[in-house]
Write a structure and sequence with these properties.
Layout (H helix, E strand, L loop, with lengths): L5 H17 L5 H35 L4 H27 L2 H21 L1 H16 L7 E4 L2 E8 L3 E5 L5 E5 H6 L10 E10 L5 H14 L10 E7 L4 E10 L3 H21 L20 H9 L1
Antiparallel strand pairs: 1-2, 2-3, 3-4, 5-7, 6-7
Helix pairs in contact: 1-2, 2-3, 7-8
Length: about 300
């Protein structure tokens, strides 16, 4: 039977190693350390899953985050629980020196990976900000840097946007947090504007009345806030009347459809009332001189 030193067993294997040593179990130190590691890891991991994850989930639900946002954050929490469980288990098992070496290697590796993955980390942090700040949600119509489309997916690194030409754009999250994002459907109502041009000889009051009437007659245009018309331009060939109308619960399709129908009915009423929608006219003046015209004419006659 192999005898081990009680002091050494208690120092390296902890209480479990001491029990095994007193029972005469060979290799008590390494076996006790392994058992201590497994027990500590299991206890910390189970407690983390039972206590920490539900708290994190309730917190995320309290902030009214969507399911697509909660899933990756809960996954990150699970990874952190595993990391903490391993760290506590190393310490409990008496692997102090090994844990210190492992931490040094991990710190160096983290530094190297950090330099190599700056853009990935930047997009990851931007994704976290998107989840917490909620500048847009899946299904929203957004515009940024001359692009526009419907958000189809949001992950911690990229967001996917379907353009109105049915093209799928995979956009790094940092592109959506570093600049200005326009979200026309973030609120319950959206104001639309359209500039109608009429001739200088046409009746401005009559044209304004028609624009207001057609807005009030359209079922998708709100009565409150009420439609308004303002004279905003005196152009080269037309007088500009800007109409401002409101629609409720907007989407891209609602916006395009409602504005198109509204403008069409106003145009038809203008035609019925003989209100002209002029187009720009340009008058060219001057003279044209052709050098050597007489010589060319004589050559042609010959």
């Amino acid at each position: 039977m192999i005898q081990t030193t009680p002091t050494g067993g208690a120092a390296s294997g902890g209480a479990v190693a001491g029990l095994l040593e007193s029972a005469g179990v060979p290799y008590a130190d390494p076996i006790g350390a392994a058992i201590s590691f497994i027990i500590a890891f299991a206890v910390v991991y189970v407690l983390g899953r039972l206590l920490i994850l539900p708290v994190v989930d309730r917190t995320l639900r309290t902030r009214e985050l969507d399911e697509h946002a909660r899933k990756p954050l809960k996954k990150v929490t699970s990874i952190l629980i595993v990391f903490v469980a391993i760290s506590v288990a190393f310490g409990f098992a008496g692997y102090g020196n090994f844990l210190q070496s492992l931490a040094t290697v991990a710190a160096a590796a983290t530094l190297a990976i950090g330099f190599a993955m700056q853009d990935v980390l930047k997009n990851f942090v931007a994704g976290v900000f998107i989840y917490t700040d909620k500048p847009f949600r899946i299904g929203d119509w957004i515009e940024w840097d001359g692009n526009s489309g419907i958000v189809e997916d949001i992950s911690l690194r990229v967001s996917r946007v379907r353009t109105f030409d049915n093209e799928l754009l995979t956009v790094p999250n940092s592109n959506l947090t570093d600049g200005v994002i326009k979200n026309p459907v973030a609120k319950g109502q959206l104001r639309l504007q359209f500039l109608f041009g009429i001739g200088y000889d046409d009746d401005i009051d009559k044209a304004t009345e028609i624009i207001i009437e057609e807005a009030e007659n359209h079922s998708e245009i709100l009565d409150e806030p009420a439609p308004t018309v303002r004279l905003t331009e005196l152009g080269d060939s037309s007088v500009g009347l800007k109409s401002r109308i409101w629609i409720d619960d907007p989407s891209r399709s609602d916006f395009v459809k409602t504005r198109s129908e509204y403008v069409q009915t106003v145009k038809q009423r203008f035609d019925e009332e003989d209100i002209n929608i002029p187009y720009p006219n340009r008058t060219l003046g001057g003279s044209l001189d052709i050098a050597g015209y007489e010589a060319v004419a004589e050559t042609a006659d010959d």
